[in-house]
Write a structure and sequence with these properties.
mainly alpha; 2 helices
Length: about 70
């Protein structure tokens, strides 16, 4: 689960970086063209990875305490 949490957080950071790299522009008719969908996906991945990391830490803490 630890690797999954790290992978989710890295994917979230990757989405944020992709949003910055792609950038935004204004079309000829005045519409703003940007990859807005990457922002909520980045937050969702990053927060899910963080929560999974916290849960993994808590579970490992209780298992090590009950084993000793």
């Amino acid at each position: 689960m630890k690797r999954t949490a790290i992978a989710l957080m890295l994917a979230g950071i990757g989405c944020a970086i992709a949003f910055e790299v792609i950038g935004s522009s204004v079309a000829d008719d005045g519409r703003l063209v940007e990859p807005f969908f990457l922002i909520p996906i980045a937050w969702l991945l990053f927060l899910t990875g963080g929560l999974l990391g916290i849960v993994t830490f808590i579970i490992r803490r209780f298992k090590s305490r009950s084993a000793s």
